[in-house]
């Protein structure tokens, strides 16, 4: 078990070294990824909601690094990464629940489609900042049979961490990892953006998120 944990941690550290491009149909993940929409079911399906103002549907830091960490472990051809398409505007952070309705609905649709039509796939999801709020709202409202199919969820710089009691409502704690940096005040329910909320700081936390999701996938029936 210690050897497995060491190996997972080692490959997670390689995530940031994986190739990054901008082609939507690429094998490795850049600022756009719509692999689930284009290619359908793969052994692992990863749904990501990016942070405010980030480009593409993945951003250029935490999302691609997390995706490429999963691809490094399971093989690039075995992971279908899909970013949630939404404008990620500053003002949409102030919707009730921390995000606008459309991307919440889109994330729910992607997760439900994966659960229904990909019975052999392992499904994981994650979000950062406003994307974390979208992840909360999407996952908490899913039917139980869809929640049961999700192996794990990670949030970064979670704007709903305090409001939701350090968890995603209605989703198992053991399947959830909420990553909040020390001094990141949005995790305490404020709208103040401290330096530790920035991608450069959360990029350093990607290896532990990769380790968590890989472990959850391997443990998933």
Break the fold down into its secondary structure elements and pairings.
Blueprint lengths: L1 H12 L21 H5 L4 E6 L12 H13 L4 E5 L17 H17 L4 E7 L1 H11 L3 H6 E7 L19 E4 L19 H5 L2 H14 L2
Helix pairs in contact: 1-3, 1-8, 3-8, 4-5
Gist of the model:
With 221 residues, the chain is of the alpha/beta class.
How does this model look, in words?
The protein has about 220 residues and is an alpha/beta fold. A five-stranded parallel β-sheet has the order 2-1-3-4-5, sandwiched between helices. Helix 3 crosses helix 8.
Low-confidence stretches: 1-26
What's the mean pLDDT score?
A: 89
State which percent range the strand residues make up. 5-15%
The biggest sheet, with number of strands, parallel, antiparallel or mixed sense and barrel status, is: 5 strands, parallel
Give Rg in angstroms.
16 Å
Query: For the terminal residues, how far apart are their CA atoms?
Result: 18 Å
Backbone shape: globular
**Structural class by helix and strand composition:** alpha/beta
Q: Order of SSEs, N→C?
A: HHEHEHEHHEEHH
Helix proportion range: 25-40%
Number of strands: 5
Strand order of the largest sheet: 2-1-3-4-5
Q: Number of DSSP helices? A: 8
